[in-house]
From TrEMBL:
Family: Belongs to the FAH family.
Keyword Transport on entry: no
Keywords carried by this UniProt record: Hydrolase, Metal-binding
Positions in coiled-coil regions: none
GO molecular-function terms, A-Z: hydrolase activity; metal ion binding
Pfam families assigned: FAA_hydrolase
SUPFAM superfamilies according to UniProt: FAH (SSF56529)
Name of the protein: Fumarylacetoacetate hydrolase
Database matches in InterPro entries: FAH, Fumarylacetoacetase-like_C, Fumarylacetoacetase_C_sf
Length: 283
């Protein structure tokens, strides 16, 4: 199943376009996309009965983030060996976890206002939790995943390294620093959900190009490790880490600039296209 938020309403995506869930179900399911995770299995069973002829074309300008109000947003640092190496870190023996504040989330095509001259990119596969999870075994991890989407963990590097201890959550939670979308795709839609190509670019310049099989801690292991310490809730997000190619470690460093459009993709899900906007001029 593939879902999307269109005009702030939950839709099922099919080849011909999108089907409004609330209207087509006769009110059985709420229009709010975030409400779907409380009865995700029932929604999937119902979606299998849909007539594709009821679909309407999708206007990209009306597509928003597939999850808008998660209760918890986890993020994992240094979860690709090549990124850990380029940043000068040892490969971690346990996941490096921090939080992104939900107010940073934005849609797949929304503009992002830069906060300065050192905003960096980090394309990520984002997991959406589908059910309550506590002390889950790694071999059962995928059963707790509602779906996968594309994310950017945009990072203000000056804020991140301003002080004796990195300010990860603050640096990565400015308004618009969490683009998501364009679709949420259930794991069964992929031939191998543990091996997806992901990357990002500006115009014709590739910035990152990796595969999720190179994660230090793959998705099921992250579910197990996180749920050993925290209760995961339906609709929670897990930003699973980024491959090599970030701007801060380049020589010279390369950061996002006003007027550029950052294009981010994950195989089988789609792409984000977020224009970068100059910060406001302060008197």
């Amino acid at each position: 199943m593939r879902t999307a938020t269109i005009d702030d309403r939950l839709h099922i995506l099919v080849d011909a376009g999108a089907i409004d869930v609330h209207t087509t179900s006769g009110g059985r399911f709420a229009p709010d996309p975030d409400a779907a995770f409380e009865h995700w299995d029932r929604l999937r069973d119902w979606a299998d009965t849909l007539d594709p002829a009821r679909a309407v074309p999708v206007d990209r300008a009306r597509v928003g983030a597939p999850v808008r109000r998660p209760r918890q947003v986890f993020a994992v640092g240094a979860n690709y060996r090549d990124h850990a190496a380029e940043a000068g870190f040892e490969v971690p023996e346990s996941p490096v976890v921090f939080g992104k504040f939900p107010s940073c989330l934005t849609g797949p095509y929304d503009p992002v206002t830069l906060t300065g001259t050192t905003v960096d990119w980090e394309v990520e596969l984002v997991v959406v939790v589908g059910r309550f999870a506590r002390s889950v075994a790694a071999e059962d991890g995928w059963a707790y995943v509602a779906g996968l989407t594309v994310g950017q963990d945009l990072s203000e590097r000056t804020v991140q390294f301003d002080g004796p201890i990195p300010q990860l959550s603050l640096a990565k939670s400015c308004p618009g620093f969490g683009p998501l979308g364009p679709a949420l795709v259930t794991p069964d839609e992929f031939a191998d959900p543990d091996d997806l190509r992901l990357g990002c670019s500006i115009e014709d310049t590739t910035l990152q190009d990796g595969r999720t099989r190179d994660m230090v801690f793959p998705v099921p292991e992250l579910i197990a490790r996180l749920s050993a310490h925290c209760t995961l809730l339906p609709g929670d997000l897990i930003f699973t880490g980024t491959p090599a190619g970030v701007g801060a470690v380049r020589r010279p460093p390369r950061f996002l600039r006003p007027g550029e459009t950052l294009v981010s993709h994950v195989e089988g899900i789609g792409e984000l296209r977020n224009p970068m906007v100059a910060p406001p001029i302060r008197p």
